[in-house]
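Data deposition worksheet. Section B asks for the primary sequence of the deposited chain exactly as it was used as input, without tags or linkers unless they were present during the calculation. Section C holds the resulting structure in token form. Section D is free text for depositor observations; keep each observation to a single sentence. Incomplete worksheets are returned to the depositor.
Section A, Depositor: J.P.
Section B:
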Amino acid sequence: MKTILFIIFTFACFQAQSHMTIYTIATFYDQKLKDKPMALKYYKRYLEAKPTQEQESYVRYSKFRVEQLGK
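Section C:
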């Protein structure tokens, strides 16, 4: 199940190149699958993608989760 979801979300991520797609993948791994390493990877990828100023609340949450998951 995880593998199929990973393939679907990864494909969507690379097709759309959307900041919010990457963020959604991160939160899915974090909250639904409880997969900390993958959540951390995607939160970092979201932050590296340089999201827009309108996404500041998502940026703050992502930084918070990176800090928490990186411990």
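Section D:
Residues 2-69 form one domain.
Residues 2-16 form the longest helix (15 residues).
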